[in-house]
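Appendix C reproduces, verbatim, an entry submitted by the partner laboratory led by Prof. M.T., so that reviewers can inspect both the input and the predicted structure.
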Amino acid sequence: MLIQSESVIGLFDTTIDQCEQILKYHPNDNLVSIILAQALISKGKSEKYIGYEYLFRAIDILTKSISKCQTILSIPKLLGDALTALIYQPITSSVVISSSKSVDEMISNCKEFYKRRMNAFRDGGRAYQKAIHMNPSSLHYNDLAINLYYRNISITRCEGLTKQDGVVEDEEVSKMIALCAVKWNRFDWKNWNTLAMVEKSPLLKQHSWIQAITLEPQSQISWSNLALFYLENNLYEASEQCFLEAHIANPSEDSSWTAH
């Protein structure tokens, strides 16, 4: 319990050290391995540019655990979370940009970097699918819908990634999965927020964000998303009011003025 509570409050290094010490004497302790992976994911998310190291370690632990521990339902979701976190690690200048490289080389490096991200999206989606198969829940459906949504965005951001590269448009699939999450639990605001993100119809997007806010009026994320939606549709007064509500919901968060 000490290990888990320290991980929750953010003492990732202590948790990692404790788990590694236990595993020296009990290398087959699956529960400790999973706690270690969870701490490594949290550490990886909090470290810019060097977070890869922690995330790769977590992925390695979970990949090995998933074949040994078929009954531990949290492993596939954690693996999906680690792969998804890997996608959002910033590009380091040493990876892509260098004065000794030509423009063509840097472009090639960028394309290769984004292809690796697409592979992480794919593998993360497969992990969430396994989580759904083992333990269907709105949380797992929601994770998969978000994975597919951002995968589509990444497709459009990298020239040279095409359907011939094995990339498939998943817009309708992500909407269908988001609807599954809502059907599993219509009282979770996160499911409605995700449905609004993947929905194409302006009226249904607005409806879904209003549903999310109705369920959780203090959701800075939903208020910000609705504000941006109104701004994109030239409804400036409504947008300003929603941004103010987002700021009221979480005045200490700078991202109250941006959407998620």
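DSSP finds 13 helices and no strands in the chain. Additional entries are available on request from the coordinating office.
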